[in-house]
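pipeline stage [seq->struct] | target=Muramoyltetrapeptide carboxypeptidase | organism=Marivirga sericea | residues=315
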Amino acid sequence: MLKLALNLFRAFFISNVMSNYPSFLSKNDLILVISPSGVVDKEEVLKGARLLEKAGFKVEFSLNAFNAHFKFGAKHQERLADLQFALDHKIAKAIYCARGGFGITHIIDELNWSQFKQNPKWIIGFSDITALLHTTYLNGFPSLHASVLQGLPRLSGDYQNKLIESLSGNISGLNATSTFNKSGKASGQLIGGNLSLLVHQIGTQTELDYRNKILFIEEVAEPLYHIDRMMLQLKRAGKLENLVGLVVGQFSNLTEDKSIYGQSVEEVILAHCEGYDFPIGFNFHIGHGEVNVALFHGAEVELVVENGVAKLTYG
């Protein structure tokens, strides 16, 4: 009876979480493309848009999507206006960020989410867009941590297809193998993103509660001492001690290696997690690479790590 009651509770809980999911996309649904952070490569964005159109979706660009203001996709108020327009849109089913880079945190606190809550839609992106995914989560909705549109043509063909299929709700779990994996089993909501952005949210309106969560992290083009410092910041801020699991994605194009710093990135992460009993899975295909797998940020997941293999599955 107890097992039956627990199963019924779990089903009820998942159904309530799923009820907050925006509608998955069907053919001819509209995707809005915005550039809320860095300046974009127009040709690559257009290539990405053609892939979406080939899959049967309609694509429209925000007014300032191809503007440029120094390093930014447009002036702060122009990017804010485009993002607010997209959040408020009554027909679109998804908002696809053209690029990460830097800039979303300049405008993130000025957004009004009231219309979005009436017409929720999938927000898609990663890297700097991590802050937007967090804000979406804090407003009660999941989002899609996946390649920005500019990066979609650069993914290998299978991963392009998997990302596009995820827009229709067709998404599966992930497996990863590493000698650094730490065994264990955990269930909880999946949150996370780019490590730099996670650290930058601490003490702000978009800071997340990490308690009882499964955290995923990825990073690009950082020296190992930056990784060390950021992991230490998470630890000192109390973000690691109440996790139930950790999923480590790609740490690509690092500007230091173990011969310089004395530790590998895996060893740095394990050192800061020493003393905690949650499972850790390394080498997941999440991040700045040609095999960036889409994840539902905010979804209920299970992480099982045993015999060097980590498996992440949706609840």
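stage status: PASS
auto-comment: The first strand starts at residue 30 and ends at 34. Residues 21-166 form a domain with the Rossmann fold fold (CATH 3.40.50.10740).
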